[in-house]
Design a protein that fits this description.
Elements: E1 2-10, E2 18-28, E3 31-41, H1 49-52, E4 60-68, E5 73-82, E6 87-91, E7 94-96, H2 103-115, E8 117-130, E9 139-150, E10 161-167, H3 168-175, H4 184-197
Parallel strand pairs: 4-9
Antiparallel strand pairs: 1-2, 2-3, 4-5, 4-7, 5-6, 5-10, 8-9
Length: 199
């Protein structure tokens, strides 16, 4: 099949997230038909990923922060209320990259704002990659960094975020407990950390 984008229509006008209708011409076995697809995006019309194909640009950062201690590796785990889910998720600090920031600058700023962390030894583990390609054109990257120290946070009015620094073994137990709701990318990252640090 061959897919050609022929039209994009912005359906809503909200400040942070909008709904778009994409119309593609789909050529299959020599026949053409129009196919409409619906998506959400933080980007403006004309800057959607299906229009720019700028796959190297990251919209956000996800930060796995750790500390090495004698008895185990300790990981920073956030507990944050997420309105679309209707409950608290257990995850890593994360946030959007501001205009003009590079990935490392955004990582340092988000760590400081959300949990007051000063970080070092920043390593890019996952380059900009789709987070939910059936729903949105958002790309995020995943980084790992050492949490050096902690100060006060700078949360926005409705950010409901707390955090703990827990041994990796304890987090493994939490992932098996249905009371704790972890996103899929965080679960996979924690499995990676287990292999990386417990060899």
């Amino acid at each position: 099949m061959k897919w050609t984008l022929v039209n994009v229509k912005k359906e809503t006008d909200h400040p942070f997230l909008n709904f778009y209708t994409l119309t593609y011409d789909v050529e299959k076995e020599g026949k053409h038909s129009l196919y409409e697809y619906y998506m959400a995006s933080r980007r403006d019309l004309g800057k959607l990923l299906c229009q720019t194909h700028n796959y190297k640009r990251s919209d956000g950062v996800v930060l796995c922060l750790y500390q090495k201690r004698e008895d185990d590796i300790y990981i920073v785990i956030e507990k944050q209320f997420r309105p679309p889910i209707g409950t608290y998720l257990y995850a890593f600090p994360a946030g959007l990259i501001d205009e003009g920031e590079n990935i490392e600058e955004a990582a340092r700023r988000e760590a400081k704002e959300e949990i007051g962390a000063n970080i070092s030894n920043i390593e890019l583990l996952v380059p900009p990659s789709p987070t939910s390609s059936g729903l949105s054109d958002e790309n995020s990257c995943l980084l790992i960094a050492h949490a050096d120290s902690f100060e006060s946070t700078k949360l926005e009015e409705y950010e409901d975020i707390s955090y703990q620094i827990l041994p990796l073994k304890k987090i493994e137990e939490m992932m098996r407990d249905e009371r704790y709701f972890f996103p899929v990318n965080i679960r996979l990252m924690l499995l990676y950390l287990k292999e990386r640090f417990h060899k």
